[in-house]
Every structure is written in C-alpha cells, then in structure tokens.
Amino acid sequence: MRTPAATFKDVGYGDVSELIQLLEEVSKLLEVYSRYILDSGSWLLTT
Q: Which tens digit of pLDDT belongs to each residue from 25-38?
C-alpha cells in the first residue's frame, strides 16, 4: 500500500516527512481526546 507521503514525493512536492510527523502527533492527540470523551459519559453523547 502506498502512503500519501510517498505519493507526494513521487510527484515532486518535496520532503513531507516533517508534516507526516506532525500529522502523527495530531492523530495521537485526537485518539486520546476521543477516547476520553467516550469513556467519560460525556453529555455530548447523551444530547
């Protein structure tokens, strides 16, 4: 499977490795945040 990073590099958009690292960090934060919401019985889920 080809990753978007490889695809961007193939078409000449340059080095996107720093952007991929930032995206991975944001993804981790969103996973933790969503897990917290689901586990907390948040009012957002009950309204």
A: 999 999 998 888 88
* d(C-alpha 22, C-alpha 5), whole Å: 13
Q: How far apart are the first and last CA of the chain?
A: 40
d(Cα 7, Cα 9) in Å, to the nearest integer?
5
Question: CA 3 → CA 7, 13, 20, 39, 42, distances in Å?
Answer: 6, 14, 10, 31, 35
Cα 47 from Cα 30, distance rounded (Å): 21
**Model's pTM, two decimal places?**
0.56
